[in-house]
Structure formats: C-alpha cells, structure tokens
Amino acid sequence: MQNIKNIIFDYGNVIFNIDFKRVQQSFRDLGIENVEVFFDHKNQDPVFDLLDRGEINNADFRAHIREVTGKHELSDQQIDGAWNSIFLDIPAPYIELLKKIKGKYRTFLLSNTNAIHEIFFTDYVKKNFGLESNDELFEKVYYSHLVGKRKPEAAIFEQVLTENNLKPEETLFIDDSPQHLEGAKKLGIHTFLMTSPDNITKFFERENLI
Q1: I need a surface site. Which of 26, 43, 150, 192 has the fewest CB within 10 A?
Q2: Does the structure show a pLDDT above 80 at 196?
Q3: Residues 6 or more apart from 26 whose CB is under 8 A from it?
Q4: What is residue 33's three-state secondary structure?
Q5: Per-residue pLDDT at 40
C-alpha cells in the first residue's frame, strides 16, 4: 500500500478481541430465546442500532432486555455484565503498535459502540495499560453513540474525512465487517478486511507500514 497517510481503525476484532458466541450465551443465560436472531454479527434486534446511535439511553436498553426475557427482576449489573461479556482482551503488542504508528500516520478510531461498552473498555485500558482512555492512542476517536451515526452509513465516514481534512485516496480503513468496508469504499477510501488469524501487527509488518 502506497501513499497512505491516514489510518482509521475499527475497534472490535481489530483492536479489542470480541466473541459473539460468548455474548449470545450470556443473553441465553438471562432468558433470551433465539439469541442468534436477537444479536449476531450481521443481524440484530433494532434496540442495538438505537443504542449504538445514542437514540435510547442505558435505562431504555435494560428495560428492553427485561421485557424480552420477561424477567423484570434482572439487575442493571446482570444486564450490563451479559452485554459486556462480548469483550475478551487487547493483546499488548496491539497497544505498542498503535503508540508507534501514531508518530508516522494520522490515526483515528471509528467504532459502532454504546455508552455501556464505552464505560467497560475505558476501564479496561486504564487497568491493563495505564491509559485514561482510547483518546491517548489516536488523534481522534469517533463513537457511534456520541456522533449519532453508524457504520456502514456514508455520513459517519464523511464526518471523519471532513472534520480532519483527510483525502480518501490517502486514507486506509481497517474493519472486520465486509458491510462496513463497503460504506468506506464508496467514498474512495482504501480498505482492509481483518479476519482471524490475521491481526494488525502481522498486517503492518507484511505491508511494510511500520
């Protein structure tokens, strides 16, 4: 890859390893049936899109979970714990890579996420890496619930490009979801689909981007 000056990173399964089967089991344990329909990598209950866009708050989300399960006695901690069980870990080499390349490229984080997850992963990077937040690793972070937009909508990519004066042809977007890459491609952004067992450290070394 040549002439890349800007790199936009997705978060889940690009930086923070996540497990959809694990969170599905957690939802199943709460009493949700047909979890594969309720929440999956490509299909999900509309409540998740609303939460990701910040159109409902945490209390609304928890109320929906209680309604779906029929268990109104579920605590906030039980629901948040199940929802946050999607997160596994961030390998330390990923953090070192992000710190290293920040001096060579303009780097950004673009994630479909929500307030419950933001609390969790902010606490995680603080406890495990001594970071106050992901803001220390990037020039700027974009969380869907704070900007009111969501990948693969073109508008969220356009916002990142416009606000930071980025040229699409000089920008690389890394994500683990093919449908999200399509939104970026339409704007002329270079893309890379991250799939296991590949990872960002291997990718940067292989492409001589370090």
Answers
A1: 43
A2: yes
A3: 81, 82, 83, 85
A4: coil
A5: 86
Q: Are 95 and 127 in contact (CB under 8 A)?
A: no
The three-class DSSP label of residue 170 is helix
Q: What is the CA radius of gyration of the chain?
A: 17
Backbone phi, then psi, for 164, in 5-degree steps? -115, 10
**Tokens (6 digits) for 79:** 């629901």
Residue type present at position 142: Y
Pairwise CA distance, residues 76 & 166, whole Å: 41
Token pair listed for 163: 């606000």
% of the chain with per-residue pLDDT over 70: 100
The count of residues in the chain is 210
SS (H, E, C) 96-122: HHHHHHCCCCEEEEEECCCHHHHHHHH
What residues are paired with 203 via a beta bridge?
none
Residue spans of beta strands (DSSP E) within the chain: 6-9, 17-18, 87-89, 106-111, 140-143, 171-175, 190-193
**Of the candidates 133, 142, 141, 138, which has an alpha carbon nearest to the alpha carbon of residue 106?**
138
- Whether 171 and 190 have beta carbons less than 8 Å apart is answered as yes
Amino acid identity for residue 86 in this structure: I
Q: Taking the alpha carbons of 116, 119, 120, 125 in that order, is the dihedral positive or negative?
A: positive
pLDDT tens digits for range 6-15? 999 999 999 9
Task: Decide: 86 and 11 in contact? Cβ < 8 Å.
Answer: no
